[in-house]
């Protein structure tokens, strides 16, 4: 699982816009307290987004994470029930 960024997607997109408008990348990175590789990773991931698209992407990422957790929980429940059924009735999985 990825570490949660201290910057929102909207903040990242706004920072990328500052660089597009002429702020030197080194100055921007120093101001934000991030490394240049982080800036370029952001640029690759979010560079083509507008702020409203960034909000939509963030919502989709949150929904995706929620659904992945739900699937993992349901898979665990299924495995537990299969184990119980196998022990109780001797049914193979």
UniProtKB/TrEMBL annotation:
The transmembrane segments are: none
Recorded GO molecular functions are: DNA binding; transposase activity
Write down a Pfam family by its short name.
HTH_Tnp_1
Highest taxon, organism lineage: Bacteria
GO BP annotations of the record are:
DNA transposition
InterPro entries associated with the record: Homeodomain-like_sf, Transposase_8, Transposase_8_domain
**Which PANTHER family has this protein been placed in?**
LOW CALCIUM RESPONSE LOCUS PROTEIN S, TRANSPOSASE
Name recorded for this polypeptide: Transposase
Tell me which species this is from. Aquabacterium soli
